[in-house]
Amino acid sequence: MSLANRLLVGVLAFGAAITYNSCKSEYLEDINPVCFQQDVQPIFVSKCTQSGCHNSQDREHGYDLTTYESIVSQGISAGNFRKSELYKILVQPVAQMPPNSHGGRLSDDQITKIALWIEQGAKNTTCEATTCNTTNITYSLSVKPIMDNYCIGCHGDGDISGNVDLSNYNGVKAAINQKLISSINHDGTASAMPENGAKLSNCNISIIQAWIDAGAPNN
């Protein structure tokens, strides 16, 4: 299937009884490569690796979704998302994953990213920028996207781990006083975050630090 042309991603086709966007198929055109480290791994780490789930210790149902090597070792058919058991689990209408107790089913956008990554060969790719712009940093356009991508699977979306809610401005502002920077810097003075995941990129940390240094405005 050529991803340079039109790809039909049948994210949901389970009938009218399913309440979430039933029978919806999404057509995508002019698809850019999906980067594992920036686009896919954060979804798995944030949404799937909480305590008792698919981390390297618990390995619920045999799945460890913390690293590239462990993710592709089971349930991935590189180049064919429809034959990948992991994809099938994500879109099944019953016994959904993640369960409601951990934020519920992934969004269509998240599932589509995973499907495209598999279709593009399930490679360990990165799209890290060569430069890092820390000027004109805002909460809404700079900091919140980082929190949404890496953090709210555990600290938001109905699962407020450690009573730290990073899904909104007030929660992130409060976390500054709860060693947010120490946690994301993995400096040993606070629990390393993201839990079960790799440290945030230096650029993402610099963006958050620049926002804090500017007074952590709600902008």
Write a concise synopsis of the structure shown:
The chain is mainly alpha-helical. It has helices spanning 36-48, 68-72, 85-91, 108-119, 139-150, 169-176, 180-185, 202-213; strands at residues 7-9, 26-28, 155-156, 159-160.
Features:
219 residues, 4 strands, disordered N terminus, mainly alpha, 2 domains, two-stranded antiparallel sheet, 5% strand, 8 helices, 34% helix
Q: What would you note in describing this structure?
A:
This is Cytochrome C oxidase, cbb3-type, subunit III. It comes from Flexibacter flexilis DSM 6793. InterPro entries: Cyt_c-like_dom_sf. It contains eight helices and four strands. It has 219 residues and is mainly α. The chain has two domains: 33-119, no CATH class; 139-213, no CATH class. The strands form two sheets. It has a two-stranded antiparallel ribbon. Strand 3 (155-156) and strand 4 form a beta hairpin. Helix 1 packs across helix 4 and helix 5 crosses helix 8 (202-213). Mean pLDDT is 80; it is low at 1-30.
CA-atom Rg in angstroms: 18 Å
Put simply, the count of helices is 8
Q: What form results from the Cα inertia axes?
A: globular
Low-confidence stretches: 1-30
Oligomer: single chain
Query: What portion of residues is helical?
Result: 25-40%
Order of helices and strands: EEHHHHHEEHHH
Sheet-strand content, in percent, reads under 5%
Structural class: mainly alpha
Cα(first) to Cα(last) distance is 43 Å
| Tally of strands | 4
| The number of domains | 2
Biggest sheet character: 2 strands, antiparallel
Task: Report the mean per-residue pLDDT as an integer.
Answer: 80
* Sheet with the most strands: spatial strand order: 1-2
Protein name: Cytochrome C oxidase, cbb3-type, subunit III
GO molecular function: electron transfer activity; heme binding
